[in-house]
């Protein structure tokens, strides 16, 4: 992570509570939908700094969470947060190499790095019998998509609507149990802590950091202006 961009990125994101939109209600909903057992074995795939681990344990009070992130900086934060907790194993790991068996694979806002169908296909053998995957995926909510909204997701041309997400999950051999939109306050849980950090870092920021700060400002502004057009869809699926 010695590239100037990534150094600047982690300077902005260091020790933030979340690395993407989410809230405890999302995890509670997931637990209810998949009928998570109290002693469930859970994988938090691409866990970031571990923002959802406590909620996953609340959904499975006697369970175990294996949390992994490919990025060492985030994996270290997650491991530090839950050091000494015997129910949590957190560290660096690649979500493309999950082995299991798990009763639930939880993946907040990261499955698109693998692709929905390829990722879910990879995870089939990592699921215990009756196991489920719950993931959040960027989603178009309307057919009317202003240019500013399309520009915000220009780097993800595969982005589709709910019907497209369902189709891709079914193509991997899964049944879609339920979906729900990640609520507005879950997005603000991610963006709001960024605002004062940006204000703090802006004075005297070098070229790389200035670019990262402007990128973050534009991203938050696009969602706040077009939250009715796009967001994350939370999807609970079970392999057939």
From TrEMBL:
Q: Which UniProt keywords apply?
A: Methyltransferase, Transferase
**UniProt-listed InterPro entries:** Methyltransf_25, SAM-dependent_MTases_sf
Boundaries of every Methyltransferase domain copy = 42-131
Q: Which domain of life is it from?
A: Bacteria
Name one process (GO BP) from the record.
methylation
**Pfam families from the entry?**
Methyltransf_25
List the residue ranges forming a coiled coil, or say none. Answer: none
Q: What GO MF terms are annotated?
A: methyltransferase activity
Q: What is this protein called?
A: Class I SAM-dependent methyltransferase
């Amino acid at each position: 992570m010695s590239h100037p961009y990534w150094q600047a990125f982690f300077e902005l994101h260091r020790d933030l509570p979340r690395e993407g939109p989410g809230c405890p209600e999302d995890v509670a909903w997931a637990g209810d939908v998949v009928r998570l057992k109290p002693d469930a074995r859970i994988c938090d795939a691409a866990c970031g700094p571990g923002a959802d681990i406590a909620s996953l344990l609340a959904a499975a009070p006697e369970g175990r969470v294996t949390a992994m992130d490919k990025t060492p900086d985030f994996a270290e934060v997650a491991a530090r947060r839950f050091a000494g907790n015997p129910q949590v194993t957190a560290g660096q790991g690649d979500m493309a190499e999950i082995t299991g068996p798990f009763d639930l694979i939880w993946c907040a806002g990261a499955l698109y790095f693998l692709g929905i169908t390829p990722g879910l296909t990879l995870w089939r053998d990592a699921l215990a019998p009756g196991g489920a995957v719950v993931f959040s995926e960027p989603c178009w909510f309307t057919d009317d998509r202003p240019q500013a909204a399309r520009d915000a997701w220009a780097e993800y041309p595969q982005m589709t609507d709910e019907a497209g997400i369902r189709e891709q999950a079914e193509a991997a051999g899964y049944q879609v149990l339920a979906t729900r939109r990640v609520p507005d306050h879950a997005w603000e849980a991610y963006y709001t802590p960024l605002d004062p950090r940006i204000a703090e870092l802006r004075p005297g920021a070098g070229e790389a950091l200035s670019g990262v700060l402007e990128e973050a400002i534009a991203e938050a502004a696009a969602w706040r202006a077009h939250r009715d057009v796009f967001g994350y869809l939370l999807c609970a699926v079970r392999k057939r």
